[in-house]
Amino acid sequence: MIARLSLITIAAAAGLAAAAVSSAAQDSDYGVLHEAPGVELTYAYCAACHSEMLVAQQGLTRKHWDELLEWMVEEQGMAEIEEPDRSIVLDYLAENYNTDRPYFPRR
Ligand code: HEC
Fold first, then answer.
1. 99 CA to middle of ligand 1, Å?
2. pLDDT tens-digit map of 22-72
3. What are phi and psi of 62, to 5 degrees?
4. pLDDT tens string 73-82
5. Which DSSP letter does residue 33 get?
6. Ligand 1 centroid vs 16 CA: distance in angstroms?
7. Is there a cis peptide before residue 84, judged by omega within 30 degrees of 0?
8. How far apart are CA 43 and CA 31, in angstroms?
9. What are phi and psi of 40, to 5 degrees?
C-alpha cells in the first residue's frame, strides 16, 4: 500500500489585507488642515503638541490669531516662531481659519 501525502496550499485571502482605509478628506499630509500656501509650516509648528484639529476648529481674525500665538508662547510653552515663518503661519491661519470658518472640519 502506498500512502500518498498531499500538500494543500492555502492561498492567502487576498483583498482583506489590502483594504486600506482611505477617504478623500483624510489623505492629505496635513491632516484636516486645508491645503493652501503656508500649510506645511502651520502643520509643522502647530501639530507638534496637539492635534491640528484644535487649530482647524478655531475661527479667528488675524489679530486674534496673533494674540493666540503669543498665548501659545507665553502660556503653553511653544517656542517663538521666527520671521518669516511667523507671518506665513499667521497669513495661513487668517486666510483659511478666519471667523467665517470656510474649512471648519466636518466630523
Ligand atoms: C509647545 C506646545 C504647543 C505648540 C507648538 C502649539 N500649541 Fe497650541 N496649545 C498647546 C497647549 C498646551 C494648549 C492647551 C490645550 C488644552 O487646553 O487642552 C493649546 C491649545 C491651542 C488651541 C486651543 C485654544 C482654546 O481656546 O481652546 C489652539 C487654537 C491652538 N493651541 C493653536 C495653536 C497653533 C495655531 C499653533 C501653531 C502656531 C500651536 N497651537 C502650537 C500647546 C502648543
1. 18
2. 334 455 789 999 999 999 999 999 999 999 999 999 999 999 999 999 999
3. -60, -40
4. 999 999 999 9
5. S
6. 39
7. yes
8. 8
9. -60, -50
